[in-house]
Amino acid sequence: MNQRDDCTHNADNHGPDEPDGAQGKASEKIATAAKMVRATTAILVFGIPLVTGTATLVGYGLYKTYKRITGTS
């Protein structure tokens, strides 16, 4: 095999001793971990304030309705 064939064969960025799927599996694990971090961050940043805000608004609405029904100020 000449030098040019070696370069085109190793274009996958893996060494000659690594199986063809090793690089892909590692990058899939990294991508999955990144997606998990992104999902967790989205839940923390958007989900918790959304649930808290909704609960606050519903609670305030129930409080005002109760006050109106009972006639207390």
The secondary structure category is: mainly alpha
Terminal CA distance: 92 Å
Q: What is the count of DSSP helices, taking H or I runs of 4+ residues?
A: 2
Low-confidence stretches: none
Give keywords.
73 residues; mainly alpha; rod-shaped
What does this structure look like?
By secondary structure, the chain is mainly alpha-helical. Helix content is about 75%, strand content about 0%. The protein has helices at about 5-10, 20-70. The N and C termini lie far apart (about 90 Å).
In terms of topology, how is this protein built?
Blueprint: H1 3-9, H2 22-70
Summarize it.
The protein is an all-alpha fold. It has two helices and no strands. Helices cover 77% and strands 0% of the residues.
